[in-house]
Amino acid sequence: MMGKPIYITGTGIVSAIGNDKQHTLQSLLRSESGIAPIRYLNTEHNEFPVGEVKLSNSEMRAILGIDEQKPLTRTSLLGAIAIKQAIKEALLDDRQLNSAGLISGTTVGGMDTTELYYHDIISDNSKNSYINIHDCGATTELSADMVGRFAFVTTLSTACSSAANAIIAAADMIRSGEADIVIAGGAECLTKYHLNGFNTLMILDKEPCRPFDANRAGLNLGEGAAYVVLESAESVNRRSITPLAILKGYANACDAYHQTASSACGDGAYLAMKNALSDGETRVSDIDYINAHGTGTPNNDESETAAMKRLFGDNMPEVSSTKSSTGHTTSASGAIETVICVLAINNNFTPVNVNWKNRMENGIIPVQDIKPIKPIKNVLCNSFAFGGNDSSLLISKYN
Amino acid sequence: MKEVYIVSAEQISIQQPLVDDWMSTPVSYGTSYIRSLDPSFKDFITPIEGRRMGKILKRAMATSITALKHAGIEKPDAIITGTGLGCIENTEKFLGSMCNDGENLLAPTSFMQSTHNTISSLIAIHTHNNGYNATYSHRGISFESALYDAWTQMQLDKITSALVGSHDEVTPTVYSLAEKIGVNGKICGEASVSMVLSTSDRCRQSAMCRLAGIKIMYRPSHQQISDALKKVLSDAGKRMTDIDAVVLGVNGNADNDIHYHNNRDIFENIPLIQYKHLFGDCFSASALGVYVAATCINKEVIPEHLFINNRDKKYIRPKSIIIFNQSDGKNYSIILLESLCGE
Amino acid sequence: MENLKIELKNKIIEVLNLEDMTPEDIDDNAPLFGDGLGLDSIDALELIVLMEKNYGIKLRDAAEGKKIFQSIEVMADYISKNRTK
After folding, report:
1. Which end of chain A is more exposed for a tag (fewer CB within 10 A), N or C?
2. A331 Cβ partners below 8 Å, 6+ apart?
3. How far is A115 from chain B (nearest CA, A)?
4. A153 with A209, same domain?
5. What per-residue confidence (pLDDT) applies to C64?
6. pLDDT band at residue B89, thresholds of 50, 70 and 90?
7. pTM exceeding the 0.95 threshold for the entire prediction
8. Is B212-338 a domain of CATH 3.10.20.90?
9. Closest partner CB to A254 (pick from B106, B112, B130)
10. Do B51 and C49 make contact, defined as CB atoms within 8 angstroms?
């Protein structure tokens, strides 16, 4: 089954490897990692390296021109910065924005302020203005209102595939004719809540993570935000804008195995990739690069490798995880990695899988050189989440 | 436009669970904070499955399993869930331990069970379903967002069936924090609603009603709301005079109800009905509004106690009902349901 | 040792929320994971927390836990030899 192609006309990105597209590109071309000891988050667990955005909340407020008094969450600030970048690149004016939709993925929402002000929120009235900005939807609305006026706003929350699913939902809206332009992506800041949560699941690495390495020991958390402006062909033509890339296909499947573990043969992952290819009427042999979910956990990397081998067999394209550069940006990862894929396509390079040394048993050899084996035209971008929420996006070069 | 049917709809709330008793013998309460009336969950989940599930998860399983059973569909093509606060009881547990006792020796189960997509994923695990699976969390329009996703995919012919639900639990802490900032309705309730949608002719026979249109807006002007209503109606080939009733989400809190009063003129003289005086309010309450409307169409009656005005219209057999919902005066939704009788 | 086993069973029932179960329902030598009681990887993580919280035993990872959590008998034996609380 094939659907209409959707055009990506704007991108915005903030992560540990850069506060905008240009800096992100430079970091990727130099195979730099943004993973470092914790600097901004106030936690006891300083033993875990993380991929923090190198901006304090005050610095982000200054960039956005928002005063210090207004109650805001770190996630909403990250989101607003990335949304603004995407809109600027797409050259959307106010009128076009007013008829556009915004779909954002987040899971922590305003947890950063909830945990910071927990005791005050429970016991007195000094932090009442933070009560109603705890949830996911509130954070999306805070970002939306910092940027402009949208026709339609909603929030997806499927953990590590939230942003990917936001992009899928947006694309469906455009294909069905409900909207011409939708801005989609995700945002997530680091919180003590999920740092501790992941720690209780014993899947954090005390060293910089090593996706697809035989000795990998877990993931490093990251934070950030990224959004893409998606448009219909009609809108692109009407606005005479040159797209950056094409969202050719996409799919969402459920592993339906366990809440925190992926099935050994990666059923959900396999179906997501396979269906994304058929949605985009693309053969496995046409895929030049896969930006893997590749968290660095023993379970994910084994399961994802099995799924890729099942689907690609002898046609395995170049594969890398960029999470050893950005950290695992959880809800934002699907969009951050989509923007990385767009950069890879338009600058014809393959992002290196930093920190890899030893091949897994029956494993792949991930990208070690930014120079691609062949021109990067068709890319798969994977996002696999707890709960088996597996999504895959097929992104192609615009000629 | 593809025809979409609501085949079945089930609820667990502060009214009797999994039945339509609220129509003839609604439970009435003298207090403002009420927890759901729960069925026996043993009928739906084994002790091993259920031991980790808090109330919200058990309710979601019970309404989902019942809705699928009544629809005669084992594996819907999609499972799409809405939730405003997610599994907030587990969130409170983990957060409380962390903030009160420190960042060591924390329990993995409450963290794992606290992520919003736990509901959707548990339903998929239980039904061995590898299909599309998504969770929306956007305050009072979480349900509409999930419903809109299903609607869009059905218009695209991507799916022919979907389990769409919305679930929210209201812990004592959630209630008291809402009290502090004055956002509670007159009655604060909980909601777990699951519906099965389908586009197949086979399901049409036994369906409750047709979902004939849905629109969600952010910060619309009065004029934009009016235009949206006209568009929903014209896309469905209807006029305002065809509408038998409008369901409003008034809840007795002036800050909430003002947004309905301000837009009342859009509905001209159509009888207005309400449901939160029976079911209370929470982020998933709009799902109850749709459930109430679908049930009224299916049973061909609108109980008198639902009417806000025009009580003389209580004998109408409803054929077309609009559900109009708003959240924080920012998010608005319009949903149109149509009867399948006499077609 | 018998007291420790009963105490351990009670704590496991509590922490893993095994409603409707009593210590008498758990056989000392029955496997806890897979067949037998049917516990899974999340339960293993909870047991790791239980070991440290109640007995001061810090396990390195889930793999180490797997060896010790074979049965109540094996667990109790390990605790009695390694507890610091």
Report:
1. C
2. A105, A106, A107, A108, A157, A159, A160, A162, A163, A186, A187, A188
3. 7
4. yes
5. 87
6. very high
7. yes
8. no
9. B130
10. no
Q: CB–CB of C49/A197 below 8 Å?
A: no
Q: Which residues of C touch B51 (CB under 8 A)?
A: 16-19
Residues of C in contact with A260 (CB under 8 A): 41-42
- State whether B132 and A199 contact (CB < 8 Å): no
Considering the domain architecture, whether residues A254 and A364 belong to the same structural domain is answered as yes
Give the model confidence (pLDDT) of B276-285 as tens digits.
999 999 999 9
Q: What is the pLDDT of residues C38-65, one digit of tens each?
A: 788 899 999 999 999 999 999 988 888 8
Q: Which chains touch C (3 or more CB pairs under 8 A)?
A: A, B
Q: What is the pLDDT of residues B135-184, one digit of tens each?
A: 999 999 999 999 999 999 999 999 999 999 999 999 999 999 999 999 99
**Rounded CA gap, C6 and B332, in Å?**
57
Residues C41, A260: C-beta atoms closer than 8 Å: yes
Question: Pick from B136, B153, B220: which is nearest to A154 by CB?
Answer: B136
* Mean of pLDDT over chain B: 96
Residue B216 has which token pair? 């969600």
Which among B74, B111, B288 is positioned nearest to B194, based on CA atoms?
B288
**Chain B residue numbers touching C17 (CB-CB < 8 A):** 51-52
Q: Do C52 and B112 touch (CB under 8 A)?
A: no
Residues B84, B56: contact at Cβ < 8 Å?
A: no
B4-204 has which fold?
Answer: Peroxisomal Thiolase; Chain A, domain 1 (3.40.47)
Closest in B95, B106, B137 to A136, CB measured:
B137
Question: What 8-state DSSP symbol labels residue B43?
Answer: G
